[in-house]
């Protein structure tokens, strides 16, 4: 009798897990379809979008690009050089050296002939470390500022940068990011088109590994050499490019990458800047912004632009990837816990009723369900709850649907931006979409569960060591610095 | 259940295979289309470059005679070239477009049902700088789709007919107005002839309209409107409008602006207005503003003190002397940490020194 009951429970659990997989992948498909519509809309309007007019207008809102840097010696000069050469009418770059122990500052001082100025740092947003000195480039004091401070973490460094930013828009960029020349124009454009409502705008982040980077510019887009990285390319396409564009179209975007996002400074100051008590400070900022503006009943928009892009290094080793994914999932868990009052709350509109519940069910819980499936399915087989025929069909349908979602992402990328011009890269993308299901997803689920449990138990977040090879090379192994919830 | 799974699996396999095939088909057909377009555009492109190199004196008839499909392939490049040409060459290329019927088609498309088509047509007419399209483009300022209105405003700016000024201003006075920055830029593109209209619109009941007109007047260098702007600074009930008035008085840089800007620094005024007025006094370049700016160095509002220090820096020698005096006064005291005024003064002086060094280097290089 008990045995029969266990079998029934296992059978029921297997069916529920199957239903969950179907719902999860269907939700991805809906988001990807939304993204497809948005890309079509974007591309049809490109001829009259007026990007050049924006570049020429003396009224285009100036931007402060804030670059937190910690031990970025190998790449910092090329990165800052590239950032000071972006195509945008008026902007400044504020590099915040967060107590680097390497030659980050020395290299910047030598390259840009930095001169110290006794800047008064306003305390508009709180920061906890000590600002040691502020420097400007002798030749371009209005364009480049470098701040030295004691180590306090990425969020703290960003807060110092926000305090020193002089312009109404602030763009947060990782020091290892390579921006397309028009990237700033693209993310700033929505602020010019709809200045009263746009509060923040995220830009897409793609993987730079394997690409040819010269002079801080991606000049040749290629698939990386390692399968681990190729799988991440497909994953970025599906989850970040398509997923976020879809959410943007639905009016429910809650994550803007810390590697590339533009915000109205006055609003960021109003909500107190970056939170230093969470590892996913970038996404937390966006959720807090929603929280603030919804409570004020303000008509606002948080949007995502799919092109051009910021290129970032992805981890090429399992150890570094594991740390990154644990961090990201821990970030999700922390944010959802911190803002749990918004979840399911009609006061927060689509964010409270749609986006955050989605993140709970299909982001936070997904790795738990995936691991449960990996345990319960063989258990069901052993207990006789399901037979071999059911099991292999179950696995094939669940993973096959996931494969279809990845392939549809590749299809939409091919129709819209087709950034990978080589046939061999296309083939590798398709194979990576298949290989993702064999081992990668499963080990990812283990890391994600550990990350979420870490947040639950309040364990200290681990950042691990970072390794940089710098720009101007085909970079293959490094961990993005201080990335938040997502890249 | 098993049967259902099998059917789903079979469907899934077919869809997966079809998706892979679709990716391949999309790539093949796109490349074929691009190749075809490149082949078609190659001849017209050469003719266009020769035409531009010849300053538009020869080759117009060859361009007019290009077959329709080849011209369609080359048209985006031709429109881009149009934006880069000036003078006779520009007029000659516009004439080519007119002879090919591009303007006629675009004027017809302005009444198309599709919003993308209407917006594209407005863009083309702006590129052609076609004055006779102004009434139709003005009509588009009330289009129900904002993206069409935005392109129409931009096109009117390119054409630069001051007669459109009132219609552009009116397009700001609606529930979903065109972006203020775009409207300002367009009004500036209409040129000095629009000044009268802009100045009159400073009495418009809508605050957004007044702010846009102030910015446009500032950028146009409309010194004849200083008194009216000063009145807005004194009397307007909206802070943003008064801040815009202060900022643009600074841009206009006339002596008559000194008094209203100084009055705007009164401690009872909001900090944002005082900061804007302090900055404007720096841009005005009037040494008479030094005493009042020195007083602001100690202001409790960071932005006001900061702007006052940098305004003194911009005022040149008298301002710098005042900054040095503020730092020196501090040295005589027994403060463990520099006061607010000394800190702001030190910052401004340091930046001034950097600027001076740069100026010297540039001078030596020349």
From TrEMBL, chain A:
Pfam assignment, any one: Glyco_tranf_2_3
Family to which this protein belongs: Belongs to the glycosyltransferase 2 family.
Residue intervals passing through the bilayer: 15-37, 356-384, 390-412
Protein name: Glycosyl transferase family 2
UniProt keyword list: Glycosyltransferase, Membrane, Transferase, Transmembrane, Transmembrane helix
GO terms of molecular function: glycosyltransferase activity
InterPro entries xrefs: Nucleotide-diphossugar_trans
The organism's place on the tree of life at top rank: Bacteria
UniProtKB/TrEMBL annotation, chain B:
Alphabetical list of InterPro entries matching this protein: ARM-like, ARM-type_fold, Armadillo, PBS_lyase_HEAT
Region called Disordered, residue ranges: 331-366
Ranges of biased composition (kind: Low complexity): 335-345
Compositional bias segments (type: Basic and acidic residues): 355-366
Pfam families found in the cross-reference section: HEAT_2
UniProt cross-references to SUPFAM superfamilies, sorted A to Z: ARM repeat
UniProt cross-references to Gene3D superfamilies, sorted A to Z: Leucine-rich Repeat Variant (1.25.10.10)
Annotated transmembrane regions: 6-28
Coiled-coil region list: none
Keywords of the record: Membrane, Transmembrane, Transmembrane helix
Molecular function terms, GO-annotated: oxidoreductase activity
Keyword ATP-binding: no
Domain of life of the organism encoding this protein: Bacteria
SMART domains referenced in this protein's UniProt entry, alphabetically: ARM, EZ_HEAT
Protein name: HEAT repeat
Lineage summary: Bacteria, Bacillati, Actinomycetota, Actinomycetes, Micromonosporales
């Amino acid at each position: 009798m008990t045995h029969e009951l266990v079998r029934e429970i296992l059978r029921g659990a297997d069916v529920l897990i199957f239903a969950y997989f179907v719902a999860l992948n269907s939700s991805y498909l809906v988001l990807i379809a939304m993204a497809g519509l948005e890309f079509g809309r974007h591309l049809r309007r490109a001829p009259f979008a007026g990007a050049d007019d924006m570049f020429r207008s003396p009224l285009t809102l100036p931007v402060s690009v804030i670059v937190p840097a910690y031990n970025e010696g190998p790449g910092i000069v090329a990165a800052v050089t590239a950032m000071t050469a972006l195509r945008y009418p008026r902007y400044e770059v504020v590099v915040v050296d967060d107590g680097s122990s390497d030659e980050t500052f020395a290299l910047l001082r030598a390259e840009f002939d930095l001169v110290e100025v006794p800047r008064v740092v306003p305390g508009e947003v709180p920061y906890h470390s000590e600002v040691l000195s502020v420097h400007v480039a002798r030749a371009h004091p209005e364009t480049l500022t470098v701040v030295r401070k004691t180590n306090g973490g990425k969020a703290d460094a960003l807060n110092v940068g926000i305090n020193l930013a002089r312009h109404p828009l602030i763009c947060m960029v990782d020091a290892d990011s390579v921006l397309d020349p028009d990237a700033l124009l693209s993310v700033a454009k929505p602020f010019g088109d709809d200045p009263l409502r746009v509060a923040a705008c995220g830009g897409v982040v793609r993987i730079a590994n394997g690409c040819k980077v010269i002079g801080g510019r991606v000049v040749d887009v290629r698939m990386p050499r390692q399968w681990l990285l190729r799988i991440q390319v497909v994953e970025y396409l599906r989850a970040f490019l398509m997923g976020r564009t879809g959410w943007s179209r639905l009016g429910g975007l809650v994550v803007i990458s810390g590697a590339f996002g533009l915000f109205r400074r006055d609003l960021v100051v109003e909500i107190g800047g970056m939170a230093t008590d969470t590892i996913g400070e970038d996404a937390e900022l966006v959720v807090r912004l929603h929280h603030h503006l919804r409570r004020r009943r303000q008509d606002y928009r948080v949007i995502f632009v799919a092109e051009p892009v910021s290129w970032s290094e992805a981890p090429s080793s399992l150890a570094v990837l594991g740390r990154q994914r644990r961090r990201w999932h821990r970030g999700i868990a922390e944010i959802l816990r911190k803002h749990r009052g918004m979840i399911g709350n009609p006061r927060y509109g689509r964010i409270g009723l749609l986006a955050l519940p989605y993140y709970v069910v299909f982001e936070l819980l997904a790795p738990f369900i995936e691991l449960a499936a990996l345990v319960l399915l063989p258990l069901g087989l052993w207990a006789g709850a399901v037979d071999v025929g059911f099991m292999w069909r179950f696995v094939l349908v669940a993973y096959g649907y996931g494969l279809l979602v990845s392939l549809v992402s590749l299809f939409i990328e091919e129709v819209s931006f087709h950034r990978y011009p080589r046939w061999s890269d296309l083939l590798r993308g398709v194979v990576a979409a298949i290989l993702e299901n064999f081992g990668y997803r499963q080990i990812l689920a283990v890391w994600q569960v550990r990350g979420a449990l870490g947040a639950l138990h309040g364990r200290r977040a681990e950042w691990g060591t970072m390794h940089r090879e710098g720009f101007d090379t085909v970079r293959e192994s490094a961990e993005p610095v201080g990335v938040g919830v997502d890249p | 259940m098993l049967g259902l799974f099998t059917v789903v699996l079979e469907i899934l396999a077919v869809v997966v295979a079809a998706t892979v095939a679709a990716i391949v088909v999309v790539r093949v057909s796109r490349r074929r289309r691009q190749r075809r377009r490149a082949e078609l555009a190659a001849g017209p492109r050469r003719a266009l470059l020769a035409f531009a190199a010849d300053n538009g004196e020869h080759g117009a008839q060859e361009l007019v005679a290009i077959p329709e499909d080849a011209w369609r392939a080359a048209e985006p490049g031709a429109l881009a070239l149009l934006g880069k040409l000036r003078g006779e060459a520009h007029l000659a290329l516009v004439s080519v477009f007119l002879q090919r019927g591009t303007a006629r088609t675009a004027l017809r498309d302005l009444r198309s049902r599709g919003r993308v088509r209407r917006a594209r047509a407005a863009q083309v007419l702006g590129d052609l700088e076609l004055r006779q399209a102004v009434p139709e483009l003005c009509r588009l300022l009330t289009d129900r789709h904002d993206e069409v209105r935005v392109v129409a405003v931009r096109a009117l700016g390119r054409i630069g007919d001051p007669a459109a000024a009132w219609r552009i201003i009116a397009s700001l006075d609606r529930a979903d107005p065109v972006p203020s920055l775009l409207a300002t830029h367009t009004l500036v593109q209409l040129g000095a002839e629009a000044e009268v209209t802009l100045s009159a619109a400073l009495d418009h009941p809508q605050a957004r309209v007044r702010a846009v007109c102030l910015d446009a007047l500032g950028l146009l260098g409309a010194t004849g409107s200083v008194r009216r702007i000063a009145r807005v600074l004194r009397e307007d009930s909206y802070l943003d409008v008064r801040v815009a008035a202060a900022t643009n008085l600074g841009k206009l840089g006339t002596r008559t602006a000194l008094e209203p800007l100084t009055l705007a620094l009164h401690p009872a005024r909001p900090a944002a207005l005082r900061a804007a007025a302090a900055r404007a006094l720096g841009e005005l370049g009037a040494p008479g503003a030094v005493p009042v700016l020195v007083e602001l160095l100690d202001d409790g509002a960071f932005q006001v003190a900061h702007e006052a220090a940098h305004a003194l820096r911009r005022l040149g020698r008298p301002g710098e002397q005042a900054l040095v005096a503020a730092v020196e006064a501090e040295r005589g005291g027994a403060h463990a940490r520099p006061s607010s005024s000394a800190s702001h003064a030190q910052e401004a002086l340091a930046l001034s020194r950097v600027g001076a060094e740069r100026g010297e280097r540039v001078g030596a290089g020349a």
